[in-house]
């Protein structure tokens, strides 16, 4: 039995490594069948480890999402709340615009069944919500937005700029326009 577990772990790691390459090359719609072929496993093995495309994408992006979430938690303690919120949104924007497939993965939160909620969005929203609430209380953010709203906005900006010659710079410019729109008047 331990040999099967070691073999299963190797399969998982191989599938994930291939998936990272395929998503980088083809975005969130990378072929699961191609991932299986390249990893040298059957489609059923891919599905056993990653029952849904969303589960596979979440695994591909998990590490960087955790870094962005940790940064939000650190920034929530900063004195300049507006600068902290803008720094986090900027980092999320640049990363989302720079990594093919991430924006699409973040937007795949539309399933109504909470059991299938997007773990990437949930991680970012849970980490960003305290930062957002502090900004609202300080009067530097118009009330009513949620962290999920902001993550969705960032993903939309990233998608809108994906074919631009410099997607990260254009996404950052569009974020500036969006921030002006969600800032309180005055």
TrEMBL record:
Domain HTH tetR-type per the UniProt entry, residue ranges: 9-68
Q: Which domain of life is it from?
A: Bacteria
Key words of the record: DNA-binding, Transcription, Transcription regulation
Q: Tell me, what's a Pfam family for it?
A: TetR_C_43
SUPFAM superfamilies in alphabetical order: Homeodomain-like, Tetracyclin repressor-like, C-terminal domain
- For the keyword DNA-binding, the answer is yes
Any single GO molecular-function term of the entry would be: transcription cis-regulatory region binding
Start-end of DNA-binding region: 31-50
Q: What is this protein called?
A: TetR family transcriptional regulator
- Organism whose genome encodes this protein: Streptomyces violaceusniger
């Amino acid at each position: 039995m331990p040999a099967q577990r070691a073999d299963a772990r190797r399969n998982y790691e191989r599938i994930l490594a291939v998936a990272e390459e395929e998503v980088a090359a083809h975005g969130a719609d990378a072929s699961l069948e191609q991932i299986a072929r390249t990893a040298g496993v059957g489609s059923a093995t891919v599905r056993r480890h990653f029952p849904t495309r969303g589960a596979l994408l979440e695994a591909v992006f998990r590490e960087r999402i955790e870094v962005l979430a940790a940064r939000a938690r650190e920034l929530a303690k900063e004195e300049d709340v507006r600068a902290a919120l803008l720094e986090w949104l900027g980092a999320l924007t640049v990363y989302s615009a720079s990594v093919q497939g991430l924006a699409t993965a973040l937007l795949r939160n539309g399933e109504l069944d909470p059991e299938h909620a997007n773990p990437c969005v949930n991680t970012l929203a849970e980490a960003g919500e305290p930062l957002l609430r502090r900004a609202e209380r300080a009067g530097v953010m118009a009330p009513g937005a949620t962290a999920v709203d902001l993550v969705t906005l960032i993903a939309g900006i990233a998608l809108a700029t994906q074919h631009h010659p410099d997607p990260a710079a254009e996404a950052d410019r569009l974020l500036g326009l969006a921030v002006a729109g969600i800032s309180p008047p005055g």
